[in-house]
């Protein structure tokens, strides 16, 4: 019996076709797929994506985020990223930032998280003001490389200190990334409405 | 699909503006990509929902090859991304959570014009309304023929 190559002809939305083969799990045909979204209905100390090993058929991950800090203050706080639940001093980062009227660069090594500084507007800013970030985790399931990320992110609090930044981050481990945790610096919560969407890139 | 082309415009002749209207509200984010030139030394600017009020703020940083600069503004009447005078200048603007009604609209932008500069910017439209239209226009003059504008939706 010959092998028949299946065609996508006639499938209107073939990103996820749950009934493509009856009884089988959804099939994804895309090169950039939505995997999960977490939108906070109430404030929370962190957001974690787990079980990422099940996405190893993707090469890279992307998180697209809009978030806000629950700190009762103006200005904004950093968004911190840790991987695999590792809170040891195993992270490094660099940033190039436009902040008010100056451009600057900074770096951290042997850090306990990757720091995306001043991205989460605080809760005394006008309601509705959120910061945003697009974060790429490259070769996240590799076990021969330390994991790296890059991000474009920014925030425009109403009071002062608007920020735009290009960031790079390093997880100094060759373990495959199986979980990603995002939280506000200094232990402040993320507010309701903060949204984090996870995508896979083939 | 997760990353869909929603609309595409290629100018057959010069035009003073391009409008995307009745934008599909079912996506999480929008990405507008343009490759354009303007005549008359005019800046390219963007507005949403026809809002001409002072509701736009932005911060940007850019490098010209000899210097790096950051500046910002509040209460502007548009997002402004500078003056490209020849095709090959590209802008990518990400409108985050554009359909939400509980958030001001945050944008992240990159502007690259290899003969002049590279730039990154963050902006905010101080309004919680969902974005239904996006207007790209020039401060004066027009977009050159051949300019392209593509609007994509990212599922969430």
Unreliable stretches of chain A: 10-21
Please report the total strand number of chain B as a whole number.
12
Q: What percentage of residues of chain A falls in helices of 4 or more residues?
A: under 10%
* Helix content percent band of chain B: under 10%
CATH topology of chain A: Jelly Rolls
Strand order of the largest sheet of chain A: 3-14-5-10-11-12-7-8
* Helix run count of chain A: 0
The biggest chain-chain interface is:
A-B, 41 and 38 residues
Task: Write a compact overview of the structure shown.
Chain A is mainly β. Chain A has one domain: Jelly Rolls.
Question: Could you name the key traits of this structure?
Answer:
heterodimer, A: mainly beta, eight-stranded antiparallel β-sheet, four-stranded antiparallel β-sheet, globular, B: 156 residues, mainly beta, Jelly Rolls, 0% helix, 53% strand
What does the model show?
The complex is a heterodimer of chains A (202) and B (156). Chain A has an 8-stranded antiparallel β-sheet with strand order 3-14-5-10-11-12-7-8, with no helix packed on it. A 4-stranded antiparallel β-sheet of chain A has the order 4-13-6-9, with no helix packed on it. A two-stranded antiparallel sheet of chain A has the order 1-2. Chain A has no helices and 14 strands. Chain A starts with 15 loop residues before the first strand and ends with a strand. Chain A is mainly β and 202 residues long. Chain A has strands at 16-17, 27-28, 32-39, 47-49, 60-67, 76-83, 91-99, 102-111, 114-121, 131-138, 147-155, 163-171, 180-184, 195-201. In chain B, 0% of the residues lie in helices and 53% in strands. The relative contact order of chain B is 0.39. Chain B has a single domain (3-154), classed as Jelly Rolls (Sandwich), CATH 2.60.120. The model of chain B has no long low-confidence stretch (mean pLDDT 93). The termini of chain B are close together. Chain B is globular, with a radius of gyration of 15 Å. With 156 residues, chain B is mainly β. At the A-B interface, strand 3, strand 7, strand 10, strand 11 and strand 12 of A face strand 5, strand 6, strand 9 and strand 10 of B.
